Amino acid sequence: MQEQRKRILQLVENGTITAEEAIVLLEKLSGKNESTPPPVQPVVLPTESKENEPVFKAEPVDEAKEQRKTTGFEDIFGKSFNDKEFNKKMDDFMGDIKKDLSQLSTRMTGLVGAALSKLKDLDIETPFGEKVEFSKTYAYPALDVRSIELDIANGKIDVVQATDELITVQVNGKTTLKGTEEETIAHITETLVTKTDDKIYMKSENKFTQLKVQIAIPKKHYDVFIARLMNGGISVENLDAKLIKARTYNGAIRVNHTQFDHAELQTSNGAVEARTVKGTDLEIETANGRIYVDGDLKEVDAESMNGHVVVTTSSAEAHKVKARALAGSVEIYVPKTVALEGQIFSNLGKADVGLNDVKLYEEEEQFLLKSVRFTKELEGAKLLKLTGESRTGTVLVRYTLQ
């Protein structure tokens, strides 16, 4: 038998037979030596080979036996996967990973938020010397005004509906004293608000001047409304404009009972709310804060790095909703009267489609990734393309309450 083993190994070395065939032949030789089974057919050798040597021919492999064979790796992990204690440890381990990643992202964005909040609460009178407070009112007929642009460094902007036909800009401010009090106030207010043709423009670049601005706007359709702040919040109510842009680096943005064709709301630190609004296209972005949207909207794109994102559209003409969050959950609510083509993703949370009349055509749950793709066909209805994504939170889709 030793000579036969040598012949088999020599044939493998010469490339006459494969390693798999050699294993089968060696197993047969070992089995023959260790037991005394009933006589079996002798191993058949081919008549000739490349080197004119007799070659062993492997018998057909029993597939059922091969399927029962496993490698050492499969044996070890197969037992582990069926071990309840092992599974519990794995679940606890994954839970710790999710918790740590979520806390890390929250802490990082929290540090940014805390720093910006300190800037927001900074009293500008210290250490910049003596302060002076002032109040000024500007008024313009609304009939020939089409555009309004406010651009200030530090303060607050409130937009309310006027009770007459005048656009009234009420400014309450404080700044550092330079010269006499009269000279300081005159220097700031002389060119603070201007009107050119059909546009009202307000600008203050002095970062040490704090301005609280309330602008009362009569109800009519405007072309453009723009409000920009470096530090402070923006609030808009009862405005009707083709284009609305509101941006602040540190502060909340709130828009209520407002109508637009296109709106962009952006802040680096603060919540963004758009309630009871109506528009064609709404874009919202915040680095640290919650996003809440509720209105008759055809297209919504909302993204927050650290904060929950809730988007609700009641429009039967809605055609796009996209909501994303890095650290926070995502909730999307759509009307039941639209056709759907959607996809939602979550790395550490759940992907939950709570719609009973959609078709789930792809559902995956892998390591650090859950995703669901779904469709809904509805004859004569507008197709809404929906995307929801979160890194650490749950993503869910529901119908709006009828």
Describe this structure in words.
- InterPro entries: Toastrack_DUF4097 (IPR025164), YvlB/LiaX_N (IPR053959).
- By secondary structure, the protein is an alpha/beta fold.
- Among the domains are: 2-69, no CATH class; 127-235, no CATH class.
- The protein has 6 helices and 22 strands.
- The longest helix has 37 residues, at 84-120.
- The protein is elongated.
**Overall 3D shape:** elongated
Mean pLDDT: 81
Distance N terminus to C terminus? 84 Å
Helical amount among residues, as a percent range? 10-25%
Global Rg: 36 Å
| SSE pattern, N- to C-terminal | HHHHHEEEHEEEEEEEEEEEEEEEEEEE
Quick tags:
402 residues; alpha/beta; 6 helices; 22 strands; 23% helix; 7-stranded parallel beta barrel; YvlB/LiaX_N
Concise account of the structure shown:
The protein is an alpha/beta fold. The chain contains six helices and 22 strands.
Describe the SSE topology.
Layout: H1 2-14, H2 19-34, H3 63-68, H4 72-81, H5 84-120, E1 131-141, E2 147-161, E3 166-176, H6 181-189, E4 193-196, E5 199-204, E6 210-217, E7 221-231, E8 234-237, E9 240-248, E10 253-256, E11 259-267, E12 272-288, E13 291-306, E14 309-313, E15 320-327, E16 330-334, E17 339-346, E18 351-353, E19 359-366, E20 369-376, E21 383-390, E22 395-399
Parallel strand pairs: 2-5, 2-6, 2-7, 2-8, 7-9, 8-10, 9-11, 10-12, 11-12, 12-13, 13-14, 13-15, 14-16, 15-21, 16-22, 17-21, 18-22
Antiparallel strand pairs: 1-3, 3-6, 4-5, 17-20, 19-20
Helix pairs in contact: 1-2
